[in-house]
Design goal:
Number of strands: 11
Helix content: 25-40%
Oligomer: single chain
Structural class: alpha+beta
Order of helices and strands: EEEHEHHHEEEHHHEHHEEHE
Strand content: 25-35%
Length: 290
């Protein structure tokens, strides 16, 4: 196999709770992760040069060792002493720095693609073990589907598949630093934590209405006071028929879940017309295997 094209799918968090801050500075989390049908495309080719090269449609993205795509290619190339070069063309559609694991899913796609292209024979679990060296979200992006993430996000448990429904994605003009959000998160007796176990039960019951009621993201306590547009987008989605709307990850992207395609299409048009978001996509829950 000389080349392979791979889709790198985005994720949203249906629930995100921070349990505590550890002595090493990391935060312990409990999150319900969900893959959606919004994706980047990667074309991976063998080259004779022996080097790792990459290009992308977004000029501001690094194309060297500062990109997780490059790190993923280097990890496998070094470990398996692959003499061939690897060229990656990244077609980016997932919003950047948006709480949707865009960089992590691109790295996961490279691990998956190179494993097939060079016939390395690694299982999904073996790829996930290597993925955690690149970033905490990479193993989940290899796994995909509906999952509970614990620890710093690296302990994964597959859950019952999420009910399929339309998903509206809206990313405002702003960028939010994950570091800033976690540094300013105050966990005390007044913190309202989402009930992750109840959310998991709702997903198992395929009860979209109840899933909407029990969704929660503790990081909104930091982002919404600092970036009120996030709350405006959430309200806008709810006013236009979303079962519920919430920020994904550390933001600033907001997603809304809908029970009907027609309602979701109308909400998509209204969101585009509102000017609240720079990037707006209408997609759906993704549950299939790769």
């Amino acid at each position: 196999m000389k080349e392979i094209a791979v889709k790198a799918l985005a994720k949203i968090n249906l629930g995100l709770d921070v349990v505590r801050k550890r002595e090493d500075g990391y935060h312990e989390v409990r999150m319900v992760m969900q893959t959606i049908h919004l994706f980047d495309r990667l074309e991976i080719k063998k080259t004779a040069s022996g080097d790792i090269t990459m290009t992308t449609n977004l000029a501001f993205l690094p194309t060297n060792e500062n990109n997780l795509v490059y790190k993923a290619a280097k990890l496998l190339k070094d470990e398996f002493a692959i003499p061939d070069g690897v060229d990656v063309k990244l077609h980016k559609h997932i919003p950047v720095a948006a709480g949707m694991a865009g960089g992590s899913t691109d790295a996961a796609a490279v691990l998956y693609g190179m494993n097939r292209m060079f016939d390395l024979g690694l299982s999904k679990e073996e790829l996930m073990k290597r993925g955690v060296k690149i970033g905490a979200d990479v193993p989940y992006c290899i796994m995909r589907g509906t999952a509970l993430a614990e620890g710093i996000g690296e302990k994964l448990t597959a859950l019952s598949p999420m009910v399929k429904c339309p998903v509206l994605i809206a990313k405002p003009q702003i960028s939010v630093s994950t570091k800033f959000v976690y540094e300013n998160l105050k966990l005390n007796e007044n913190t309202i934590h989402p009930d992750i176990d109840k959310l998991i039960a709702d997903i198992k019951a395929k009860d979209l209405e109840q899933i909407g009621k029990d969704m929660g993201n503790v990081l909104e306590t930091v982002t919404i006071p600092n970036y009120p547009v996030i709350a405006e987008i959430k309200d806008h989605m709810r006013e236009h028929g979303a079962v519920n709307a919430m920020m994904s990850g550390s933001g600033p992207t907001v997603f809304g879940l809908f029970d009907k395609e027609e309602t979701a299409v109308e909400a998509y048009e209204a969101m585009r017309a509102s000017g609240l978001a720079k990037q707006v996509y209408l997609t759906s829950i993704y549950n299939n295997a790769r």
